[in-house]
Design a protein that fits this description.
The complex is a heterodimer of chains A (about 800) and B (about 80). Chain A has about 800 residues and is α/β, with parallel strands linked by helices. Chain A has 3 domains: about 375 residues, Thiamin diphosphate (ThDP)-binding fold, Pyr/PP domains (Rossmann fold), CATH 3.40.50; about 200 residues, Thiamin diphosphate (ThDP)-binding fold, Pyr/PP domains (Rossmann fold); about 150 residues, Rossmann fold. Chain A is built from 29 helices and 22 strands. In chain A, the strands form 5 sheets. Chain A has a 7-stranded mixed β-sheet with strand order 12-11-13-14-16-15-20, sandwiched between helices. In chain A, strands 4-3-5-6-10-9 form a 6-stranded parallel β-sheet. Chain A has a 5-stranded mixed β-sheet with strand order 17-19-18-21-22, sandwiched between helices. In chain A, helix 25 links the parallel strand 18 and strand 19. The radius of gyration of chain A is 30 Å and the shape is globular. Chain B has one domain: OB fold (Dihydrolipoamide Acetyltransferase, E2P) (Beta Barrel). In chain B, a hairpin with a 4-residue loop joins strand 4 and strand 5. Classes of the chains: A alpha/beta (about 800), B mainly beta (about 80). The structure holds thiamine diphosphate and magnesium ion. The site of magnesium ion (MG) has 6 residues of chain A, from strand 7.
Chain lengths: ~800, ~80
């Protein structure tokens, strides 16, 4: 924290050496007899049976994929099959040591992890709890189906059928699948058993699990979050960002409830990442566990353990879990195991030898464990065979039922075919169910708030003169007021980004919040855009409502997967089981050139699943931010740096109390009759200037501020165009592929008969944003707007162009511009 | 003995004015160089302005909530 740590130049420049904790490799040596005594025979037999269940399940899928049949079933399964045959002990060992309240976030190869977690949870939960859970899921539809078609006398047996059916129906894209068929093989999850979303993006679960850990810490829960990704994921930047985030020094030094995030980074190390060999070829590390020393003196408690032995894994997970609950995390486990099956069904094993596969076959976790239980006298061969045939019979029945469309029909897509679309957003707003703790100070005494109280709410004085932003509420203040109000009443709101406390957010929006909220509500994050967004998603999945900041929209690229594949998709991919109420603020810059000045709102609007707002006035900023923070959907807020000091010009003033402006409704800022001008973001202001000048020439503009990009109500625009017959769209985004182009296309279609001229998009040209002194030739200026109105829309051939755009759009397009 | 002025500093080419938040030293107070005298707020930041020299505050030329332009003399110190 600024000023709390003195960096002493003498001390820091003194010679020393860095040492790290040594990393145990395969240190597990407990005798099976001891495990038997401590865990009891039942636990060991269950571990064996759970491995058998996973093997049978995945063998069924493998068989369907390669032969089109399995047992009595013939079925063309079209989805992916990243099987973990050979890796069962890793999954089962981990699950043995976790409670249903511990949450795992897995990978593309997650059937085993999912089933292991589910089977273990079923063991741990009583029949009553299981019944409640199964009844609650999807109004009991899956449970009814299982009771009818896969009955079982025991509560646990029924729950196991529920688990297998929920997963397989999900893979077959059926309505009763755990996620309504919206996730499929790589994504299925079921939170009541502690199995959280599985991710097809390698390494993505690391950041999301870290966010879950953040929220578990915030709530003081007695549980941990587990990132379950492969060895190949250690090559992914976001995984390193997550590891660092989970161990930020502030958790111990500055947070009231001291302790690092309870996150276990469990790497299922099968030595390969598709066709690349990690140790020895694609990675720098020789042994995966070594990465722990890259971060911390305690080496993140890293250990390499034998992933072919469920008990070695369970022992390690149990020990790490305790460290994590004691606040000593994060922890890394390098769980070595081997995948007998191919990476996917198109894998021809070109990258490994038969010899190697056979050598690992000789230490097959299931065969080895079964034999050792027999040798120890815990199991006899006949019983082992009976367990196996019971598992096989159960599996066959589940496959038959899941494949049968009469039993498990596909999801209905609605009479208009848009059923999946209706899963993208929720209409809900979930208010807090508890009060926020008292703020650290009386808000009325905070300098920012005291000063705002004295400011004029409107932007003009009695004489119509503009008031200084020091004396009138600005867009920055509007955002602040909405955020302050929400944070004071809603303890789920946590605010972070790269300089949110003392600095007050990159552009001062948060100034004053650090006086009111402790570190667990407002904190500085590392320069890790991917982790900032990923952790926000994980925290939201656990019940938090993070508001995170990316300093510049240009940094969206650093969080591309997190914004576009994770934040945007999990509501729909979970079939609405999860909401992701995250608000991401990012500023649109200016004056800093090509990598700090881009309006990328259209990029975000292109990806389905994100609500997008771009307010241009203080009143709109406050009301839209209030809606964003209340919404259960993910919202991205674009804020123009040029407008932070903007005072209110359109309404009497910014209301003092809290109010909401609905997301998706454009606003008429100026009534006119000849040309409708639809503005996005800060282009509202040059358009206003152009309107003044054009009025002098007898041309009247009707100015509509889009305010939101997604959703977007075309109503007011179509009504206006019905009146004017002409439409200009002005935005600072590069024209090619921009959201203004989408708006123009749709208005052309919906208002074709009313149009006197084709709609014109005036954006930025398709080249880099130049630095400050050349920006006026790049972003649309009042003269450019006048030119576009007069020539393209009013058809004034004699118009004397005064803007800088004299280029030929068709010629430029031919050369890629 | 010299009279040294504390002026509203240049804070980058975008900031032309600031508002006085608090006055931490009054006429007659002893100050040492680097000691905070005035707190100001610009639209973006709140910051303390420090005494440019050690001496006695001779005059304070501003009041809380005044808006001052870059270059304005805020206080005078006699060394
Ligand atoms: C970001 C990303 N890059 C590439 C892929 C394609 N891909 C899928 S699995 C995989 C290998 C992952 O290796 P590892 O993490 O070791 O897991 P394993 O497949 O061995 O279980 C790759 C490259 C992907 N899904 N996501
Ligand atoms: Mg691997």
């Amino acid at each position: 924290m600024a000023k709390s740590i003195h960096i002493d130049p003498i001390a820091t420049r003194s010679p020393t050496e860095l040492a790290s904790k040594r990393i145990p490799v395969h240190a597990y040596a407990r005798a099976l007899a001891d495990e038997h005594r401590v865990r009891g025979a039942d636990a060991l037999l269950e571990a064996l049976r759970h491995m058998m269940v996973i093997r049978a399940f995945e063998s069924g899928i493998a068989s369907l994929k390669s032969t089109g049949s399995y047992g009595d079933l013939t079925y063309a399964y079209k989805g992916p099959a990243h099987l973990s045959i050979g890796q069962e002990a890793a999954a089962v060992g981990a699950a043995m040591a976790l409670t249903p309240e511990d949450h795992i976030f897995g990978s593309h190869r997650s059937h085993g992890e999912f089933l292991a977690k589910g089977l273990a949870a079923i063991q741990m939960l009583g029949d009553n709890a299981l019944t409640t859970i199964m009844e609650a899921h999807g109004d009991g539809a899956l449970l009814r189906t299982v009771e009818t078609h896969l009955p079982d006398e025991s509560g646990r047996g029924l729950a196991e059928n529920f688990l297998l059916m929920g997963l397989l129906a999900e893979m077959f894209m059926r309505e009763i699948g755990f996620n309504g068929g919206m996730g499929g093989s790589m994504h299925a999850f079921f939170t009541p058993f502690g199995a959280y979303p599985n991710n097809a993006i390698v390494g993505a679960s690391a950041g999301i699990a870290t966010g879950a850990g953040l929220w578990m810490k915030s709530e003081g829960r007695d549980s941990i979050a587990v990132s379950m990704v492969g060895d190949g994921a250690t090559g992914c930047g976001p995984v390193w960002e997550a590891l660092n985030f989970a161990g930020m020094a502030q958790f111990e030094r500055l947070w009231d409830n001291a302790g690092f995030l309870p996150v276990l980074f469990f790497f299922t190390n099968n030595f390969y990442a598709m066709g690349g060999q990690t140790s020895g070829e694609t990675m720098s590390w020789d042994r995966l566990a070594r990465i722990g020393v890259g971060l911390r003196e305690d080496a993140c408690h890293a250990e390499t353990v034998d992933g072919t032995n469920p008990l070695a894994v369970a022992d390690a997970v149990q020990r790490k879990r305790q460290l994590l609950l004691d606040g000593k995390g994060p922890a890394i486990l390098d769980v070595e195991c081997y995948r007998f099956s191919g990476h996917s069904t198109t894998d021809v094993n070109a990258y490994r030898t038969k010899n190697e596969i056979a050598a690992w076959g000789a230490v097959d976790p299931i065969g080895t464990f079964r034999e050792s239980l027999v040798a120890e006298g815990i199991l006899d061969t006949a019983t082992a065979d009976a367990i196996q045939s019971d598992v096989d019979a159960r599996m066959n029945a589940v496959f038959m039922a899941a494949a049968d469309p009469a039993i498990a029909p596909p999801p209905g897509l609605g009479s208009d075919g848009a059923g999946i679309g209706r899963k993208m957003f929720t209409g809900s707003e979930t208010p807090p169910d508890r009060h926020a703790p008292e703020p650290l100070a009386d808000p009325a005494k905070v300098v920012r708030i005291r000063k705002n109280a004295k400011k004029s709410r409107g932007g003009r004085d009695a004489n119509g003169e503009l008031i200084s932003p020091l004396k009138a509420i600005t867009l920055r203040d509007g955002l602040f007021e909405a955020i302050l109000h929400a944070a004071l009443i809603d303890p789920r709101i946590i605010i972070y980004g790269e300089e949110c406390r003392e600095w007050g957010g990159a552009f001062g929006v948060y100034r004053g919040l650090a006086d009111l909220f402790p570190h667990d509500r407002v904190f500085n994050a590392p320069i890790s855009e991917a982790a900032i967004v990923a952790t926000a998603i994980g925290a939201a999945m656990e019940g938090g409502r993070p508001l995170v900041e990316l300093m510049y929209a240009d940094f969206i690229g650093r969080a591309g997967d997190e914004l576009f594949n994770q934040l945007a998709k999990w509501q729909a991919m979970s079939n609405g089981l999860l909401n992701i109420p995250v608000v991401v603020r990012c500023s649109v810059g200016s004056k800093y050139g090509a990598q700090h000045s881009q309006d990328w709102s259209g990029l975000a609007a292109h990806v389905p699943g994100l609500k997008i707002i771009y307010p241009a006035t203080p009143r709109d900023a406050k009301g839209l931010m209030a809606s964003a923070l209340a919404s259960d959907n993910p919202v991205i807020v674009f804020e123009s740096q040029r407008l932070y000091d903007q005072v209110e010009l359109f309404q009497d003033g910014v209301p003092e109390g809290n109010y909401k402006i609905p997301i998706g409704v454009p606003d008429i800022k100026h009534v006119g009759s000849d040309v409708t001008v639809l503005t996005i973001g800060p282009t509202l202001y040059p358009v206003l200037e152009a309107a003044d000048s054009l009025a002098g020439r007898g041309v009247s503009l009707e100015i509509i501020d889009a305010r939101s990009l997604v959703p977007f109500d075309y109503g007011p625009v179509l009504e206006s165009v019905a009146k004017t017959g002409r439409l200009l769209l002005v935005s600072e985004a590069c024209e090619r592929g921009s959201f203004a182009m989408t708006l123009a296309t749709n208005v052309t279609r919906f208002a074709f008969d009313a149009l006197k001229a084709p709609p014109r998009v005036l954006g930025s040209p398709n080249w880099i944003v130049p630095g400050a002194d050349l920006e006026h030739g790049y972003f649309p200026q009042p003269f450019d707007i006048e030119d576009a109105v007069m020539t393209d829309l009013m058809g004034d051939a004699g118009h004397n162009r005064t803007g800088s755009r004299r280029w030929d759009d068709l010629a430029l397009a031919r050369s890629g511009l | 003995m010299a009279r040294i002025e504390l002026r509203m500093p240049e804070l980058g080419n975008e900031i032309t004015e600031a508002q006085i938040d608090a006055i931490l030293k009054g006429t007659g107070d002893m100050v040492s160089e680097g000691e905070e005298i005035v707190t100001i707020t610009t639209p973006k930041v709140t910051m303390d302005l420090e005494a440019p020299a050690t001496g006695t505050v001779l005059e304070v030329l501003i009041e809380v909530d005044d808006i001052v332009a870059v270059g304005t003399v805020l206080a005078v110190i006699e060394t």
